[in-house]
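Reopening this ticket.

The earlier resolution said the output was attached, but the attachment link was broken on my side. Pasting everything inline this time so it's all in one place.
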Amino acid sequence: MGIAHFARRIKQPRGLWVKMVFIVVLGLCFVFFWSFVSSSASSFIVQRESFDDIAEPVSSRTKSAHHEVSHEKGKVESGSKSKEGKKAGGSVHKHETKKKKEHVVVSHPHKKKDLPKPVIDEEEKSVVVKEDQEQVEAETDGSESNKEEGDEGTESDGSEGESDGSGNGDDSSAPAEEEVEEKSEEVTVNETGKKKKRKGPVFDPKAEYSWRLCNTRSKHNYMPCIDNDGLIARLQIYRHRERSCPKKPVMCLVPLPHDGYDPPVTWPESRSKILYKNVAHPKLAAYIKKHNWVNESGEYLTFPQNQTAFNGNVLQYLEFIQEMVPDIEWGKNVRIVLEIGCSESSFVAALLDKDVLTVSLGLKDDLVDLAQVALERGFPTLVSALASRRLPFPSGVFDTIHCAACGIHWHSHGGRLLLEMNRILRPNGYFILSSHNEKIEDDEAMTALTASICWNILAHKTEEASEMGVRIYQKPESNAIYELRRKKNPPICKENENPDAAWYVPMKPCLHEIPSAIEQHGAEWPEEWPKRLETYPEWLTNKEKAIADTNHWKAMVNKSYLTGLGIDWSHIRNVMDMTAIYGGFAASLVKQNVWVMNVVPVHSPDTLPYIYERGLFGIYHDWCEAFGTYPRSYDLLHADHLFSRLKNRCKQPVSIVVEMDRLTRPGGWVVVRDKVEILEPLEEILRSLHWEIRMTYAQDKEGMLCAQKTLWRP
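Inline output:
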């Protein structure tokens, strides 16, 4: 009856508007239906494909005996689990063997040039080859034996295809036995008695490349795994609620800013001014008009020292904190600090003068892109979501966590965000919370939450100059206090819950036990800085390798990197070590005016806790995906056998080179040490990107390549 009545209305003279409304309604229904179907299904496929070969980091708290057991167990279970993976996703290992023909066209290859050799003596060369072989073998063993067994429970954000709660753990479709060979790699999967072998180089030596610019909504600030892009995405939120990478590897180049890009202001002048055009953003322009800590002065953005969130008295603010808690000895007892949120960075700059290394966590909701401003100024910064997944840090590594008017409701969602801070905070570490005019309800909720996790409030005062209320909490140093709680809420995490598992792992509403055995990292507070830089704790299993790594990189950097590569280190500030093992490369640069982001790949042995132990910092990452930062963030990328260790793991290894191009500033450098069979095609890829090859060197099938990025864009 209703349909017949509607049809009669349409036939009437006034039915034209009814027709138009009917068509519009149908169109909107189709759009929203398609958006719902495509977003849910595709995001699930993306997450499963990105987990295919991820092995969970080895917990430094796990004893060697347990490693051997899980290694044997992984061999037995690999066949059955890989079969299950194929049934579920249909993409286990298959995406690694396919050779995509996208972006491959004919171009004119450039001829190679004879370039000067780096300064490396014969003894160092032999050490390089031997150490690289040992590290590759160690990584292969680690990737086999470090799968989390008891990561139970699933927590989904409702909008993204999340894993089964095991994160970078129980993904047993990864090869059980893997060997990195000189010319080819064979991956054998034990599946119902049959063996499948894959062979092939990392880069196709015959491939030739053509490039295009990315056509994305965020344009020159495109962050592939953070920005929500695409036609349907334009009707949704600007950025993903959680990290979610494109289904296909990114093979386009991020354009330069609209007004071009000039070499950044060098350190330390960049602390007080930067080039506006390099970070120009419409919302940033509106932000500048409302805040006095940043001013537009001609072509520069300037940062007056007397105009900060602390009323120009950030040093007085730091002294105020240390007076309340004398054990906070900036630069000695406290060395590594996590700053939640990016604002005007005066806190980070002031701590830097006290030998405190502070990394700022730029939240993905920062649409003004203040994190990019911090990077341009030369301050360590990451961009990440803080919602339902763990941050990519190991447990118990930060000496202090600081939140000054960061706008986070720590007590919401059952307090899971504060529980995540408790996970990454060192036992006896400090959580400093500063705010203006806090609501009574929030105050009461925060008091109840911190009491439930046994944090001791050391001080609660108002700093007169900034008029900020400052609270300093301290995490307990032993598990005894947990047993004294009347209500065991939140509960203690299960014994098989790995606190160091952090890659695509959901936050857990529980308290991890505080380490007490000498074999566990975090059981004791580190030595004072700078003594902790070359201290080797009892829980470190391979002290000899760590010592050799430190000595090796100290010699390499002093004799070759600082003098033999043609790099002007006065223009280098932001550095990334893409395959940090023990942090030896970063340790060798401590006396330089640089900071180093140490990246420990998720398929490698978990050495990141030791990097923090020695007073450096870093992050877990899978290089088959884009890194969580803005384009043009780094002056120098260092990749030591990155590609040989990732052989056949990623769908399209060339996309890693594209990501390196995105991360590097024009005029920035890439130093790659790897096998000659990898460096030769890599050199041609860089030439196709119009990078300038500054130096190549090879001996005994091992080599080094040094290249500099230009302003070229297609």
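Reporter confirms the inline version is readable. Residues 311-514 form a domain with the Rossmann fold fold (CATH 3.40.50.150). Residues 36-116, 119-198 have pLDDT under 50 and may be disordered.
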